[in-house]
Write a structure and sequence with these properties.
single chain; alpha/beta; five-stranded parallel beta sheet; three-stranded parallel beta sheet; 13 helices
Length: 317
């Protein structure tokens, strides 16, 4: 068995409600991006998704919601409603299809911290979800902003992780920088966190990055010598990181050299890539082959494929 720690789902009803409630001033490019989340694809339609999952029945999925951030579209009350709808649907999938989905990360209305903390308690405490998803900025605020302290403290209390997903800075329209811009945004967010109060004050806080820490492993030595805070390099090694590099064993080995096997989890960005590679499960298959080709002991591959996710999410498997 394997656990894919970073697969994507966008609940269709929640996407429809978000479009209905979207403010007239919403960026048209951002709105078009959201409309794609409402259309029938493997990111929101079970029969299509199961068709791809059937190719790898030994892989269980953890569900996360990707771009766009709901708080870009609606006022806090409407954002909270959309988040509740999305979280309810995701945990229903985990409950109703335990042979397919083993966990889900909640989304929160990040345009109001009181509502975000309330939904965090509902999603993690009542629904039993396995963590939360944040973007690399919160309406333009960095992830080391003091306003996030109460949320981070709550996540330490729950002992559940935060999935970090890249998104654009507020000066760029959603969907415009997904090629390399997102990797920069992830790397910048990690350096901001690692060089600040976050891990110093909350050493037990758990965060999962997308795309194996993006630029951080490659630029390790540059960061070691040029980061203004000497703690940054040490704290960067505290992140947990997925393998969603779409293949590329050399890049995986670079990440392995920096983070070590204990802080790497199998993650693929599934169902992305299914449209690009006919008759396949897309990026999942490329990632599977790349991890299998890593020149590391089999017991460390088992950590990456399975054991690290069980331990981090405290799963009963």
């Amino acid at each position: 068995m394997k656990i894919d720690i970073y697969t994507h789902w966008w609940p269709q009803k929640a996407a429809q409600r978000l479009l209905e409630k979207a403010k007239p001033t919403t960026d048209p490019i951002a709105k078009k991006y959201l409309e794609r989340r409402e259309s029938r694809t493997a990111v929101n339609t079970l029969d299509l998704r199961f068709r791809f999952m059937d190719r790898h029945p030994d892989v269980l999925h953890v569900l996360t919601i990707s771009n766009p951030p709901p708080e870009l579209f609606t006022d806090p009350a409407d954002t909270a409603e959309v988040c509740q709808m999305a979280n309810d649907e995701m945990i229903d999938l985990v409950i109703n299809y335990p042979d397919r989905f083993i966990g889900a990360a909640a989304i929160l209305p990040m345009n109001d911290m009181d509502l975000a903390l309330k939904e965090c308690d509902r999603a993690l405490g009542e629904l039993g979800m396995h963590g939360i998803r944040l973007f690399t900025n919160v309406l333009g605020e960095k992830l080391n902003a003091e306003m996030l302290r109460p949320l981070y403290e709550k996540m330490v209390e729950y002992d559940k992780p935060i999935w970090i997903h890249p998104t654009e800075p507020q000066t760029v329209s959603v969907g415009q920088e997904w090629l390399l811009g997102w990797e920069y945004e992830t790397s910048k967010a990690m350096v901001d966190i690692a060089g600040s109060w976050v891990f110093e004050d909350l050493p037990d806080l758990k965060m999962i990055t997308h795309h194996l820490g993006s630029m951080i492993p490659f630029f390790e030595q540059r960061i070691r010598w040029l980061a203004p805070n000497p703690r940054t390099h040490k704290n960067l090694k505290k992140f947990h990181n997925d393998t969603a590099l779409y293949g590329g064993t050399a890049a995986l080995m670079c990440g392995y050299a920096f983070f070590g096997a204990d802080n790497i989890l199998f993650g693929t960005d599934m169902p992305l890539g299914t449209a690009r590679v006919p008759h396949s499960a897309g990026f999942m298959e490329w990632t599977l082959r790349a991890v299998e080709a890593m020149d590391i002991p089999d017991e460390e591959k088992e950590k990456i494929f399975l054991l690290n996710a069980i331990n981090l999410l405290r799963l009963a498997v």
